[in-house]
Amino acid sequence: MSAFPISIDGREVQVAPGETVLGAARQLGLDIPTLCFLEKCGPLTSCLVCLVKINGRLVPSCGTKATPGMVVESETEEVHAARRTALELLFSDHVGDCLSPCNLLCPLRLNIPVMIRQIETGQLDAATDTIRQ
Q: Mean per-residue pLDDT for 74-103?
């Protein structure tokens, strides 16, 4: 099967078989946010920050394979609200002690979770020290 068209936010893009909706959006220069997706690791689809709407359903763009004629909505208020909700749920009980993508790939090996907690609690001097370390 050769490349086929899909539509994202009213813009058509030619997609190779096996390509994800996220990959197709990136071809168009669209910035769908991601949190758990790493190019080197493939889709995890666990954070749901990259949600898009296809045929009335919200789905993670990083793990959804494009199909011929697909119509994708990525920049609607409904999609933005769903992404915000996903982030709120993630942060509601998460202290950030896991090894997240920001930890694993940071070339400076910054302790991002600690720094975020320090900033969140107003400990800006401590956050600056964390960065310097």
A: 80
